Amino acid sequence: MKARYKYRKENIIKTYDELPLHHTPALTPLNLKEHKERFLKYGITPKFSYRVSASELEKNVNKKKGQISFQYFREAKHILEIVRKKFGNGTKYLDETFGHKIDQQEATDIVTEYLSDNNLDGTMTIIWSSDILSSAIMKWCGPNLKLNKPEARKYSMWIKSTHENPYLRSHGMKCLANHEIGTHFFRSVNDGLQPWFSDRKTFGLRGFRSPALSATEEGLATINTIFEAKTKYLWLHALLYYTACMSTEMNFRELYDHLEGYIADPEQRWKRVMKVKRGLENPDDHGGFGMEQCYFEGAVEILRNIDNIDFTLLFSGKVCVDELPRIKRLARLNCIRVPKFLKDVEKYKRTLRHIATVNGLVERNCKKSANFQKKRSKSQLKKCGGFSQTPTPPPKKTQKRYSAPTMPPIYQTSYSPENETPTFMTSCGSGMFSLVGENNNKDFIYPDNDPGWEDMEPEWETRSVVDPLTPLGRMLSRPKSSANRLRAESEPIS
Fold first, then answer.
1. Vertex 178, ends 236 and 290: CA angle to 5°?
2. Average pLDDT estimate for 292-310
3. Which of 67, 89, 189, 475 has its CA 20 to 30 A from that of 145?
4. In sequence order, which residues have a C-beta less than 8 Å from that of residue 45 and are 6 or more positions away?
5. Is 60 exceeded by the pLDDT of residue 417?
6. Distance, CA of 343 to CA of 357 (rounded, Å)
7. Whether the Cβ atoms of residue 354 and residue 233 lie closer than 8 Å to each other
8. Closest-CA residue to 408 (of 466, 482, 462)
9. Using one digit for the tens of pLDDT, what is the confidence trace for 8-38?
């Protein structure tokens, strides 16, 4: 019998010195390197050239996806101010969040290890290039969607090889892999298994280029980027959103100088300003390209609706958040694949709630924080031997209240021919106390300073032996006096 050996598929790694023209997006400047050098050295405002005509370029910029929004300007500004107060500038934040800078070989090892942990060896090609505009891009090529052959698609992950890439760090490459592979790749592969893959209109789903789908896709990827980061601030994408908003009031140079208050690295500032000002005929004009705002917009919308989202269903394909109820009964969930960080959905949601709270997108739960403070104070007392630094006040002295009987007092009379004076007895629970008699002329005293006895109106039970018209009968039938004292005097029955 022949032994069977399971061979591990190898990942293909490529490096391009220059990005091929057919892989260059329409809004990517062709003369990016030389104008970057001229601006950083001499402060000359760049004039970009593109592979498309000016009319087509203007058409792309004026699309709905490229319009600048101010809906979450306050939230973005709030996150930037928090990071500035805590870390000083963006460079220190990047070191704290994503670790120290690494070279291309170390980054390749981290990506291949990520593929192995998620059982994705040999599923894609890793390509390094210094010309791509973004930090990384997930691409696929294959037959037309109408042919409905998702298994024939081939995937490739393009990564920027220069240190202008803020994720080219020891911990940042795993965060970047969660963005590109853990979100874009898994959702794209699962989408090919669904019935709506080749005809989205029949099922009432939005197209791949719709702004709503871009917001959900990139917003979810933005959240997963910082899911395993050391700090949970949406700083990078809040900075992009803020830069687009401020571009409406500043030119290229003014915007570059303005961002120095949030990030000191000149290359990182150049990248943010260039991505907003690209597409303009004259980058020195006011205005910009707002497509990059969808990252922050989608993240905010998801983080504010965590409890209303089925994240396993959201990873079943390329769908928007508001389309989940429509596909709930149609999605094939028994064959989809999810990233490793989504195996425990409850833990995933807890981390997302923490991200939303840290970034000030939702209000902090006061009840939970109060319980946390109690537990924290108890643990501190145990550590310091049970003694707190602040003296505890003495306990308040409370007066013992008299417990009222469970049953109201019942008065009884015993009469015999030999003794013409009746004996009145009261029963309170289990004890019998004599009130008045021939040989027992004592007072029955109710407890003092007890409002319970004043408010209580017991049902008096009297025997027909006593005439209620006599002084003794009137005394027994009336309620207690205000002084809580009852005195009965013996009188002969008339």
1. 35
2. 97
3. 67
4. 39, 251, 252, 253, 283, 284
5. no
6. 23
7. no
8. 462
9. 678 899 999 888 877 788 888 989 999 999 9
Chain position carrying tokens 């008699």: 437
Angle between helices 73-87 and 90-98 (to 10 degrees): 80
Q: CA triplet 94, 111, 120: central angle to 5 degrees?
A: 140
- Cα end-to-end span (Å), the chain: 123
425 — pLDDT class (breaks 50, 70, 90):
very low
- State the amino acid at position 383 in one-letter form: K
Q: Which residues of 255-264 are buried (b: 16+ CB within 10 A; e: fewer)?
A: bbebbeebbe
